[in-house]
Amino acid sequence: MAGIKAKNLTVTMLMDFYGQLLTDKQLAALDMYYNEDLSLAEIAEEEGISRQGVRDSIKRGEKLLNEYEDKLGLAKRFIEISTGIAEMNAVIDSLKTDGSEEKIAALKELAKKLSSKL
Q1: What's the whole-model pTM score?
Q2: How confident is the model at residue 28 (pLDDT cuts 50, 70, 90)?
Q3: Residue 45 contacts by C-beta under 8 Å, 6 or more apart in sequence?
Q4: What is the C-alpha separation between 47 and 33, in angstroms, rounded?
Q5: pLDDT at 1 (0 to 100)
Q6: In 1-118, which ranges are E strands?
Q7: Contact 30/15 with Cβ under 8 angstroms?
Q8: Does the structure show a pLDDT above 80 at 46?
Q9: 11: how many CB neighbours lie within 10 A of its CB?
Q10: 26, containing H or E segment
Q11: pLDDT band at 30, cuts 50/70/90?
């Protein structure tokens, strides 16, 4: 079950980055399926198309989202930078207690690493 949730989060994140590059129908089907948790039959009824048509639209949309991410890597970069910022915040919090030079150097190195990602 954890794999399904992770996949849902991945598709939802990719929709945030690349959703506007999909057709309106693909984006609507993906949104209803992943964000509103509607079944294929419910989406088909809402859109006035067959269940198979909904499935095809979702699969094409997922494929395109993954292709965009493979080429552009915006979501991966976002995660890397967010993780780096969290690490920096942890170092900053630790500086409040003892202010060691070693921690300051670590913070500067993290900042340098994040800057190179931009």
Answers
A1: 0.76
A2: very high
A3: none
A4: 12
A5: 47
A6: none
A7: yes
A8: yes
A9: 20
A10: helix 24-30
A11: very high
